[in-house]
Amino acid sequence: MRTKIRIAMVEDHPVVREGLRVLLDLEPDMELVGEAGSATSALALIQRIPVDVLLLDLVLGEEDGIDLIPAIRKAAPETRILALSSFTDPARMARLASAGADGFLPKTVDPSHLLAAIRQVAAGRVVFDRTMVRALQAPDAEEAKRLAQLTPREAEILRQLTKGLSNKEIASQLQISERTVKVHLQHIFDKLGVQDRTSAAVLAIRHGWM
After folding, report:
1. If DSSP codes are grouped into helix, strand and coil, which group holds residue 83?
2. Where are the strands (E) in the chain, listed by range?
3. 88: buried, middle or exposed (CB in 10 Å: 19+, 13-18, 0-12)?
4. How deeply is 99 buried, as exposed, middle or buried, from its count of CB atoms within 10 A (0-12, 13-18, 19+)?
5. Lowest mean pLDDT: which of 73-77, 141-145, 191-195, 204-208?
6. How confident is residue 155, by pLDDT bands cut at 50, 70 and 90?
7. Residue 167 three-state SS
8. What distance in Å separates the CA atoms of residue 103 and residue 15, rounded to the nearest whole number?
9. I need a labelling partner for 96 at 20 to 30 A (CA). Which of 129, 135, 182, 201 fits?
10. Cβ atoms of residues 180 and 174 within 8 Å
11. Taking phi first (over 0 means left), then psi (-120 to 50 degrees means alpha), and beta for anything else, what does residue 37 get?
12. Contact present, 62 and 68 (Cβ < 8 Å)
């Protein structure tokens, strides 16, 4: 049984890559299995090597890392994506929230927090920086109507999701099966018009669901 988290990074700055490499090498439960500096090389890497968590810089020279997320999802659906960004403008954050990443953090994040986020994402949790969430555009009335359509149980599960809990942890908290959690999550996604856990959690937080 594999005990280490297999990590790959997509970062076009050699100095940043070196810093991340040194940081990850010190962790006994983490293994850096690959590096890429462009979208093309990132896709080739993901298709060649099994990766648990991909650290994705959202600015890759002239390329936009957000545009890469759907392609990674298609090529390696089991790989979890933790996005790192230097930007918090509302339009960009809105695109990121709906792109399908499993988490996003500012590149200024403390190293200990980054390591903790990697472990959380690898365990199936959703991780996001609340300052970046607050940079999103203000919630609208249509979103509020969608949230109002949720059943009490769905609302309860969504609130657990905003805490970053995995399906297993939600099931344990609510004393239901993981399969039941998955069924409820799909209903939540359908009602909110989103595709994934991160988008659902971000939408809820924007409306004050904590």
Report:
1. strand
2. 5-10, 30-36, 53-57, 59-60, 63-64, 80-85, 103-106, 127-128
3. middle
4. buried
5. 204-208
6. very high
7. helix
8. 23
9. 182
10. no
11. alpha
12. no
Decide if pLDDT at 123 tops 80: yes
pLDDT class of 2 with cuts at 50, 70, 90 = low
In angstroms, rounded to a whole number, what is the distance separating the alpha carbons of residues 147 and 70? 25
- Token pair for residue 102? 């499993």
Q: What are phi and psi of 55, to 5 degrees?
A: -85, 115
pTM of full prediction above 0.85: no
What confidence category does residue 90 fall into, taking pLDDT thresholds of 50, 70 and 90? low
Q: In this structure, what DSSP letter does residue 113 have?
A: H
Task: Please check whether residue 135 is in contact with residue 93, taking contact to mean a CB–CB distance below 8 angstroms.
Answer: yes
- For residue 137, the number of C-alpha atoms closer than 13 Å in the C-beta half-sphere is 9
Instruction: Count Cα atoms within 13 angstroms, Cβ side, for 15.
Output: 0
**Two tokens, residue 105:** 């953090």
Beta-bridge partners for 201: none
φ/ψ of residue 88, rounded to 5: -130, 25
